[in-house]
Amino acid sequence: MTPFIAEILGTFILILLGDGVSANVTLNKTYAQNSGWVVISFGWGLAVFMGVAVAGPYSGAHINPAVTMGLALAGKFSWSLVPTYILAQFIGAMLGAFVVWINFYSHYKVTQGEVEKLGTFCTNPAIKNYPINFVNELIGTFVLVLVVLYFTKPVVNTDIIGDLKIGLGSIGALPVAFLVVAIGMSLGGTTGYAINPARDLGPRIIHALVPMPNKGSSNWNYSWIPVIGPIAGAAVAAGLYLFLL
Hints:
- The chain is mainly alpha-helical.
- It has one domain (3-244): Up-down Bundle (Glycerol uptake facilitator protein).
- Helix content is 67%, strand content 0%.
- Helix 1 (3-26) packs parallel to helix 4 (82-103), helix 2 (37-59) runs antiparallel to helix 9 (173-187) and helix 7 packs across helix 11.
- Residues 154-162 have low confidence and may be disordered.
């Protein structure tokens, strides 16, 4: 297992289970339909737990370009590894979304709502207000990256990874899962809390590519917000962390 493969696999598991819980709650005729935001928040937290548990020993389990960028900006991760990590994260996210589409294929066929279908792949704002939506994503990711910076320490398999110093996997999977649940419960209802560019853009691309009845738009006008907002939030978190040091 290389760090590149670990980031693909960890992000794949994150999106398979995360988009999976969104589909399970949203699509028609699943046993979990309409089970609500609490299920979605805990589902995403557990998805992070599983992804981090798998990838942690090999890559530090960033499974999120915003985390990778935030750690690099804070001087806790090598910039030379950033491009390959982000590429791996996008590959994993797209594969995860594709498998969700396969798994729920019959339920997409009997679900009429275009927005509901899109929401099983990527995020949409509850109230469309792009400046505020951008701030929502910035704040959520700021909390994610800042807390990660404060409760991580350099513990990974350095014989495998070389100059990697830190990542989500270095704190264990469970605290990260609780952090994601907390962000979802407290802040996530405004935009669906992407807080991860790969989590949103990768599945949005898959939504645009796969066939399904009454698919509707992939909402590309909004797609930049869950990409740029999390990166901005990570940068602010890294800057504050360095300032407070």
